[in-house]
Here is the input.
Amino acid sequence: MTAMYGLFDRPDAAQRAYTGLKRAGIAPRDITVVSGEPFEAFEFSHRDHSMILFRLALMGGIIGFVSAVLLVRGTEMAWPLVTGGMPVVAWWPNLVIIFEMTMLGAIVTTVVSLLVTSSLPKFGKSLYDPAVSDGKILVGVPESSDVIRDTLTNNGAVAVKTVDV
Amino acid sequence: MIGAMFPIVHLGRPWLFFWLMPYPTERQIWPNFRSPLVWDFFAISTYLTGSSLFLFLPTIPDFALVRDKTTGWRRRVYAILALGWSGTTKQWHRLESAMQIMAIAIVPVAVSVHTIVSFDFSMAPVPMWHSTIFGPYFVAGAIFSGIAALIIAMASLRKFLHLEKYLHPVHFENLGKLLLMMSLLWGYFVFAERLTTWYGNIGSEMTVFWQTQRLSFAPLYWTMVIANFVVPVTILSFKKTRTIAGCVVASFGVVLGMWLERFLIIVPALSHKYLAYSWGSYRPRTPEILLLIATFGAMILLYVLFSKLVPIISIWEMKIGEHPKLAHEQQTRDEAQTMWRTQP
Here is the structure.
């Protein structure tokens, strides 16, 4: 598949190109914007907002909590030795383990969720140009046509390129 | 990493440290979760995992930038570290969400790990250790010495890597204010601990107490008070002396003072326990002195290697600092154009 993209110097030019592509009938989900830094002040960066990572982190914490409760209670009951005059299932010291495993569950789930939802690691071909590292902003679509080229050029693209992805 | 090494060194049989891991022996005996030593394993593992990931996440976009700027084997290494990061809006949003979660999660984990390290002492019936103040005392101490080490590291990087453009005097001044606050908090905790011990007047505790106040450990104790409290408060209370050099001098004092604090928690108490027949004296031997030097050396080596291989100041986060200005400029320009159009 041949994709076409334009490179922009400024985020407001990238925003104009993004708006122009939408007006040209391209669905927002098909427009890729790649930058060397996040641009929260512009509309193109708002479309992927989601609370999914927060929900997954909470779920990871709950899984960690339940696993810890099962681990400490299950193993203490499996070999019921009295230690230091404490009950066999001593919740005060067990709370330390439960807290740590809850937090570990939330932390690990956050990182795994970040990788999965961001499609990382990804080492194949993708819509990318090393000029992004020099501060350029890439706006591209997974198709090429004269309309797209004109839209990118008219909105201030310093270069328009095609690439197989 | 250096901190995590010490519980293992002190296990007695360090080669069996894996017995702390939560899996059963062939007789189905699990680690004893009621033991502070096992709490250490869980706390340090969680903290090490969390802080390593929290360090790694914001460096992914910078690794991608370095990948694009290098060639050969370096490019391949940084390409792997960058995980194929391109910088789509979705990736940026997910990364920022993940960093928000990690920033929230790492604070209670940091508090817990330092509290649990204090529990290693306070769960033991040793004079002056069995104290409820040890948890917050250790947390405050960790933040205190952490800020001091940070100031020294920042000043060193600023000087040797010529980062004057990024590390301004105002950063040191603000960290100096934070160090001053922590110095006062540390002084308050020490006063509260000493006053309650003195007022309680329990024989075994008073033995250790007087060892540090007036007897053999008094020189070290008062050096600690001067280094942790008198020097930082004197230097950092005044704007005139809250300079980069002033902050660095105060920080060296704090690093020395906090090392002495840990020494004075351990040695006087263990050498003056309940029964006089067990009293003894302690002098560090050559292997212990070499271990101390080696840990300082290892820490400096790891940090220097890290600063050599990883962008020591986050590049993309520095760029974000320019955005409010950019957005403000755009807004001002739009407003000006609107006014120009509407006015005759």
User: Anything to note?
Assistant: Chain B is about 75% helix and 0% strand.
